[in-house]
Amino acid sequence: MGGQAKGKKCNKAKKKQRGGSRGCDLSDLSAHDRMKIRMHEKAKKKTAGKYTVGQLLEKTEECLDNFNYEMAQLFCQRALDMDPTNLEILDMMGNICMELGNAEKAKQVFLKAVELSPDKGHAKYMYLGQIHCKEEALQYFSKGLEVMISAYQSQPQPFGAASRSGEMEVTTKDISAAFCSVAEIYFTDLCMEETAGDRCKEAIQKALEYEPNNAEALQLMASYLYSMEQIQEGKEYLLKSLAQWLPSMQKAEEGLSEDARNMELLETLIPPYESRITTAKLLTEAEEYELATEILEGLLDEDDEVIQVWYLLGWVCYLQTKASDEDNDFKDSARTYLRRAKKLYNKLKCDDSELLGHIEQILSELGGEGEIEDSDTEQPRLDGIEDDFVPCSDDDEEAMES
Asked: What's this model's pTM, rounded to 2 decimal places?
């Protein structure tokens, strides 16, 4: 009798170990996390025997095309459960985790890919470089470059523009972008190193060697030269950088480039938001106020809740009050932009006291600060919210059922 009871106890213990989320204590998890676990378990049951790995990857791609990253993660995880050493799936999962802001999970996935294939596939090293800082980031970027250059040299080299086609595993543009990542590390995390300046310049020169018209590399060289107080030389590189993307963006804004393929190409040419803020700063330093204003106003069209953009517009107008006969017009504009920056600073509960101090200092000098009129109050921007919603297919809804 005692032996029988003992056997039942052992069976219960084994059942609890095998029970997955049902055998785990979920009471300490938030409602959202418990729902995610149940969704994952439900998806596993729904897809068990229903989809092949290839079909799961197709479903993942469909979700990614619709920017449904959480659903994409469920399908991708199921594919990974079925084939845990598949490098393509690991790479896809790492990308999804990065999109979801889960850097720790992405790190684990990419490190697993490194363990399985250390000398093939550069992308995982570039992502790991983004996740890490200082020397660790530099090591991953450097290894990624080593793998990248090796792959580039070993692949057949097409002629002319074909070398930029999507058929190539690695392009000169990829290598140039990787050298820019190395240069950025020396600009930021490792800027206090004794040889940081020389290493930074070497990386930028390499980037331009592989891709002479890389807008990012040209701008980095401009930043480097500005930091060395070589303003005129830096300005030349900055204007070369602008020439790579600004005319195309201006045509698009004027409606002269409506072809969808041209618009897709334009998106690949235009630097990221933060990079264009840096462009505006450099243009302001070079006293190219009109160009700086044009770029900053374009940034506002994309996102009008970035304090730095409003502040820079106010700063540009303030500087123009010192160099123009139209003093009052620029003063009014400067006040408007800086008041908006200050209002947004309070709304977003920013903690950059140095920035706020400078805003208040300029407003005090301009005079007539006063209170912001009620008519200046911004209303929430709801345009386009419906467009962001993409309905799931019937199969997706099955996997999401709880």
From this structure: 0.70
